[in-house]
Design a protein that fits this description.
Helix content is 21%, strand content 29%. It has 202 residues and is α+β, with helices and mostly antiparallel strands. An eight-stranded antiparallel barrel has the order 1-2-7-5-6-4-3-10.
């Protein structure tokens, strides 16, 4: 019996080690724009999305995003706004469309010169320039009208802070989701697109 318990214990430890290793798997750094950039993996119920973060160009935004990641804030949140030909937005609501409490809003870094091109990740916000908290969106189209044009609030733009380096097939799958109105919100996927985990790769 004791020998049997040792075997079971060994199997469990091996399994835990294997899972831990898989969560921290590293990508080929040659695909990064900058090998020193942070990289995260969004684990969704539709597949994994790897994102390179622009630490140097968007330091405030990246630090804010990583603070949410490290506190497991995004676990169980959804992509609650999906518009094919535009973007997919998530990071603020749970599966019941209940909005989560967030940290304080951050400074808008849209002035960093990064463009809202297909595959880039930017912070969602209200009409107030410095109102972004936890919600982000992935551009599925070149949305240049979201770029910074001037200090005028209507033209200040949306801060890009990352780029999808692997998993655009997953993004494209999500953007094609059937949506509905769940008052007062529109463009809500009929089937919940869940962010199950966000893992810091480097």
């Amino acid at each position: 019996m004791l020998k049997y318990n040792y075997i079971i214990g060994f199997i469990l430890i091996t399994f835990i080690f294997f899972i831990h290793s898989c969560k921290n798997v590293e990508l080929d750094k040659s695909i990064l724009e900058n090998q020193n950039h942070s990289v995260v993996k969004l684990v969704t119920n539709k597949g994994d999305i790897f994102i390179e973060l622009y630490n140097e160009s968007s330091p405030i935004t990246v630090e804010n995003f990583l603070n949410y990641v490290k506190s497991d804030f995004y676990d169980g949140t959804i992509f609650h706004r999906v518009i094919d030909g535009f973007m997919i937005q998530g990071g603020g609501f749970d599966v019941d469309m209940v909005q989560k409490d967030t940290l304080e809003p951050i400074k808008n870094e849209a002035i960093n010169g990064l463009k809202n091109k297909r595959g880039t990740v930017a912070m969602a916000r209200t009409q107030i320039v410095d109102s972004a908290t936890s919600q982000f969106f992935i551009n599925v189209y070149d949305n240049h009208f979201l770029d910074h044009l001037s200090i005028n609030p209507q033209q200040y733009g949306y801060a890009v802070f990352g780029n999808v380096i692997e998993g655009m097939k997953v993004v494209d799958l999500i953007k094609s989701s059937s949506t509905e109105v769940r008052s007062p919100y529109s463009d809500v996927p009929k089937e919940s697109i869940i962010i199950e985990d966000v893992v810091v790769i480097q």
